[in-house]
UniProtKB/TrEMBL annotation:
Active site feature: H62 (proton acceptor), Y132 (proton donor)
Quaternary structure and partners: Homodimer.
Pathway in which the depicted protein is active: Carbohydrate biosynthesis; dTDP-L-rhamnose biosynthesis
Catalytic activity: dTDP-4-dehydro-6-deoxy-alpha-D-glucose = dTDP-4-dehydro-beta-L-rhamnose
Gene Ontology terms: cellular component: cytosol
InterPro entries listed in its UniProt record: RmlC-like (IPR000888), RmlC-like_jellyroll (IPR014710), RmlC_Cupin_sf (IPR011051)
The name this protein goes by in its record: dTDP-4-dehydrorhamnose 3,5-epimerase
Organism placement in taxonomy: Bacteria, Pseudomonadati, Thermodesulfobacteriota, Desulfuromonadia, Geobacterales
CDD domains: cupin_RmlC
Site (described: Participates in a stacking interaction with the thymidine ring of dTDP-4-oxo-6-deoxyglucose): Y138
Family: Belongs to the dTDP-4-dehydrorhamnose 3,5-epimerase family.
NCBIfam families: rmlC
Length: 181
């Protein structure tokens, strides 16, 4: 597996070794030992999620507060998305900064987003199926969101009018939300 650093050191792009021929392809999408070597700490995933969305849908920016904070290993298995992680750790040197990565069925890249980050993605293809493993269970009482177009974050989402859920339309600005210390 190839590991690609991002502008935020804790967020990593993981590129699997793909074996392909005229029959198709095979790759190992997750291996606990390799992940431990790459991340440098023991991670236990407890939940797998799968979403399907159409072009122009933006989901996020979501996170959960401690003690239910979630690390996420995300990938797109059908289509293409623009995936974003925002550092919301107040004590971090990269607080309020974001990383954006194109994830697609074609490039097979994955993104590791540790606890302390808000996460969202925009669907670029006609349809996208998105998978993510989480380090904690979904907990509605700890669930929070930052509005996708927060002017302080200046995220270049590549669109000006995405399709949003009611929940995501009502997200708060980073300066107004409960975040990590």
């Amino acid at each position: 597996m190839n590991v690609v650093a991002t502008a935020i050191p804790d967020v990593l792009i993981l590129e699997p070794k793909v074996f392909g021929d005229d029959r198709g392809f095979f790759y190992e999408s997750y291996n606990e030992r390799v992940f431990l070597e790459v991340i440098g700490r023991d991670i236990q995933f407890v939940q797998d999620n799968h979403s399907r969305s159409v072009k122009g849908v933006l989901r996020g920016l979501h996170y959960q507060l401690p003690p239910m904070a979630q690390g996420k290993l995300v990938r797109c298995v059908v289509g293409e998305v623009f995936d974003v992680a925002v550092d919301i750790r107040k004590s971090s040197a990269t607080f309020g900064e974001w990383v954006g990565v194109h994830l697609s069925a074609e490039n097979k890249r994955q993104l590791w987003i540790p606890e302390g980050f808000a996460h969202g993605f925009l669907v670029l293809s006609d349809v996208a199926e998105f998978l993510y493993k989480t380090t904690n269970y979904y907990a509605p009482d700890y669930d929070r969101g930052i509005v996708w177009n927060d002017p302080d974050l200046k995220i270049d989402w590549l669109v000006s009018n995405p399709q949003l859920s009611q929940k995501d339309s009502a997200g708060s600005r980073l300066v107004d939300v409960e975040i990590f210390d």
